[in-house]
């Protein structure tokens, strides 16, 4: 059994599935919690997303750079987890599968 499962409706009324959820391993190590691309440009970010394939840390789509999505588009790494205090649901971690466009919750 994997570490993650698709949220009850996956964030989609039609209740999509995720072809990548069973391939998620342990979370990569996190260094300093920042979006390096934004930091180099002197930009602020709203939230961070951790790539569960390689550990890349990028800003969310609500941020100026949307570097987590850019990372997915350039690498094809499908799943990123919300990291930090801006992760909405109190006490609940979540992840997003860019390829299947569904939310994932930890088991």
UniProtKB/TrEMBL annotation:
<dbReference type="InterPro" id="IPR013083">
    <property type="entry name" value="Znf_RING/FYVE/PHD"/>
</dbReference>
<feature type="domain" description="UBP-type">
    <location>
        <begin position="16"/>
        <end position="107"/>
    </location>
</feature>
<dbReference type="InterPro" id="IPR001607">
    <property type="entry name" value="Znf_UBP"/>
</dbReference>
<feature type="compositionally biased region" description="Basic and acidic residues">
    <location>
        <begin position="11"/>
        <end position="20"/>
    </location>
</feature>
<feature type="region of interest" description="Disordered">
    <location>
        <begin position="1"/>
        <end position="20"/>
    </location>
</feature>
<protein>
    <submittedName>
        <fullName>UBP-type zinc finger domain-containing protein</fullName>
    </submittedName>
</protein>
<dbReference type="Pfam" id="PF02148">
    <property type="entry name" value="zf-UBP"/>
</dbReference>
């Amino acid at each position: 059994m994997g570490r993650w499962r698709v949220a009850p409706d996956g964030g989609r009324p039609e209740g999509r599935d995720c072809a990548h959820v069973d391939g998620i391993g342990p979370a990569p190590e996190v260094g300093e919690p920042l979006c390096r691309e934004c930091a180099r440009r002197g930009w602020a970010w709203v939230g961070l997303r951790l790539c569960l394939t390689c550990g890349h840390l990028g800003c969310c789509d609500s941020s100026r750079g949307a570097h987590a999505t850019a990372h997915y588009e350039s690498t094809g790494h499908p799943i990123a987890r919300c990291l930090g205090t801006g992760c909405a649901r109190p006490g609940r971690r979540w992840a997003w599968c860019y390829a299947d466009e569904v939310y994932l919750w930890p088991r």
